[in-house]
DNA sequence: GAGTGGTCTAGACCACTCT
DNA sequence: GAGTGGTCTAGACCACTCA
């Protein structure tokens, strides 16, 4: 009946309060992994709130893998909780500047070509589709930070054809002008190839951190990029 | 007035439909990055649905970084869209088996000790807190897959003290019995140390993929683990 | 068939922030 | 002060799944 009125802070009975309380019960072993917890209706009654509020709390906990929900069955504490981490994907420049270093980049090559077959298959592009191939080197305080080898689907991002990349890197231009909704990342450690070693100023075979990323907007491929970092690089995520 | 009745499928006017339509408008440049889009009220009128429904669609888009929302200002298409990737965190055994390989592991060492200072600071544990230190080697088809060096907060997970880890690895035991809500991951490439090289059957200095992970349940530290993989390892995420 | 989560509607108050 | 998003309530129908 009365208005609860939640804002940023967690008032009594907000979905945030309920989330925290559920986590508390899990931590204190009130509810064990695998256990079925009361239904939304019951919890709503217990917390004195609407069912939708409980629903949101439980949905968000399900989103991060803490609980599992099934219709007709109910909600149970996950036996294999939290299956995912979130990694931030910053613009290279921002990433460098955030570490207090000076950023600059240089474009090593730039070619408009028809899509090579391996790339075509990887991104599900039509045969002969025009793509832009760009290779860049990014620096932090004049030390090589990342070697970038990128392919861009010109059908999806026609405006990029007119870009000189003198002041704005392809990475940053894309991030600003070509939103995407789907992304695949493949992270690995590898030994530097001869070219990578030369670019990054390390020895051939030295460990490098490799990120290969493909992006789409709905089902339209945008770009595929391989980014290679020296082994001092750290990718950090907090969930 | 009428009931829309959405289920798994996206009926007209479900929050899913609205999400997709908004993505379509972004893809088709109806709305450009940086642009302010109509308010929830207007969109609700346009789509013929309740404001809450538009709110959920926009909230989920904001969650993945496609739009940015501010009170009093409105919702705009993000200029730096999608800042995060989600990485799945599987149980080692599952991960190995998913690749069609046979899994086994061996416990290299196991000690209950007082928390060392560096670890104490990292996890914000009280001085002298009891921790369990376990080192394991995980195999895929009898080839070394991962070298694991783990510290466990016994105050948070007392039951683990009685575990022999003969059949269930510490990793899997924790995943089954110790839910967590917060996690930090630090991914990097490194040269194998002498010990790591020996364990993984590679040469010293060879590239290895390193995951360092710390977990908490609410604010209680659970475990800190360093997992080292040979360079053939791939960490893949799809968003 | 019946119970549980999934989602929608309609209306409301609040919090933040810009002017 | 005013406008926009943030969230809550109350009630409802639907979809899925188990028995």
Automatic annotation (TrEMBL), chains A, B:
GO molecular function: DNA binding; DNA-binding transcription factor activity
Pfam families given in the database record: GntR, UTRA
Source taxon at top rank: Bacteria
Chain ranges of the HTH gntR-type domain: 12-80
Cross-referenced SUPFAM superfamilies: Chorismate lyase-like (SSF64288), Winged helix' DNA-binding domain (SSF46785)
Keyword annotations: DNA-binding, Transcription, Transcription regulation
Keyword DNA-binding applies: yes
Transmembrane segments: none
Protein's name according to its UniProt entry: UTRA domain-containing protein
Annotated source species: Stappia taiwanensis
